[in-house]
Amino acid sequence: MDQRTGVGLVGTGFMGKCHALAFQAVRATFPDTLRVRLRRLVDVDPAVTEAFARAFDFERWSTRFEDLIEDPDVLIVAITTPNFLHQEMALAAMAVGKHVYCEKPLALDAAGARTMAEAAERAGVKTLVGYNYLRSPAVGLAREVIRSGGIGDVIHFRGAHFEDFLADPAAPRTWRLTRATAGGGALGDMGSHVVSLARHLVGGIEEVMGATQTVIAERPDPREPGRRLPVDVDDQAQALLRFENGASGTLETSWLAQGRKMGLTFEITGTRGAILFDQERMNEIRLFQGGGPRRLHGFKTILMGPDHPHYACFCPAPGHGLGFNDLKTIEVKALLDGIRDGTPIDPDFRAGLEIAQVIEAIQLSAAEGRWVRPDAL
Ligand code: NAD
User: Fold this and answer.
1) How far apart are CA 225 and CA 296, in angstroms?
2) Which atom of ligand 1 is nearest to the CA of 131?
């Protein structure tokens, strides 16, 4: 009997390809984890789905999501569809006892995320949300340094995620640009990565004060470019954060940030040092640790290498660097290890709910002009 864990993937877009690459790479990269078998692929366009299935050696493909649910050989369902489909697909998979690996943001809003988290806990299945930047060796090192007291007590977090992929007003109104299909704008799409990093590195967020703006209020209809459609989500957002441990912070995000391609950054200040990270330079962190003669004070750049989390599984030589897709391979390993060992996986749907609560608190704060506690939502 084939002992490999059957994987079903839905979606063949940007994230669908990342998931498929990661499931293929994981065994060779991390030989001690579960073996997987790409059992089934689903997407809406038959020609695209067939070509993708052939490229990645999926055993079967179809355009019916139910085929994944009904297949007894599919143990893990990986969901890479637009946000509005995550909830119904995940609930259907968990109802028949399948583990679910779902792209972020988990749902359209906190209520949807709560339904998913509670269903996962009732079903007793493993879940994982695709906040892949948490898997970066550089972020792992930053966490180790902070946890071991290497910058003293954390007093401030400054996180941003800036890209420019929607800076052109002629970019069509795709699913990311309506509340009904995306849940939110840049804040939910990109700001949620900042929230995931803030929680991972600093801790829980107790209260937020936010502002959001829709700068480009209409965009061309993708099917009829002469026609313009309204945009009802934010293009950019800002928030003040108060952490449970007393630290304060800021979050900024925009998909109109001219020139920024993958500007996911953080600067964490402690009582004795600071750490800087920029995903555009994902293979390094900059670390300042006080002490010694003041004239020698300054940030040092640490290039990632085999001494840092997961790096050696990809490459024995320091400074050569990992790429974005490698983060997904590390993420898939976390999922498979959690399934094999029955141990908690972070971020699971409960953590995805907590991130959704922070995003919704910022949206509510922006609408009502007051501080909002995420745990009240
Ligand atoms: P995309 O538009 O490139 O791909 C979406 C895919 O879903 C398409 O192939 C589409 O045909 C398919 N699809 C749509 N409706 C479907 C249905 N009913 N049944 C089956 N397939 C269907 O989008 P994307 O950029 O890959 O984003 C998908 C998800 O991944 C979103 O939730 C997004 O927020 C998330 N995402 C995460 C990251 C990350 O860094 N983790 C990056 C980009 C996107």
Assistant:
1) 58
2) 41
